[in-house]
Hints:
The protein has helices spanning about 1-30, 40-70. It is built from two helices and no strands. The protein is an all-alpha fold. It starts with a helix and ends in a 13-residue tail after the last helix. The protein has one domain (about 1-70).
Amino acid sequence: MKQLKRIMGVLWMILAPAIIYFLVVGAIENINPAGTKDINKPVPWIIIIAIFTPIAIGLMIFGFYSLKGEYDQLPESSDKL
């Protein structure tokens, strides 16, 4: 189980920047001043990227701690905290 947690930690650390990269690339490709749909406007893209960036950073932190082994021994009750 410890090995699975560490593998998932690496996965989260790789997935988080990839998500931000694909969001930025999607925004660059879809923003078009001549477009009439909502996907062509920059404001929704800015909002989406602004919301998902902290989430991706949190995933990277979670993955780092998982890779480091911080989640290997979890408390079974609040008395062990």
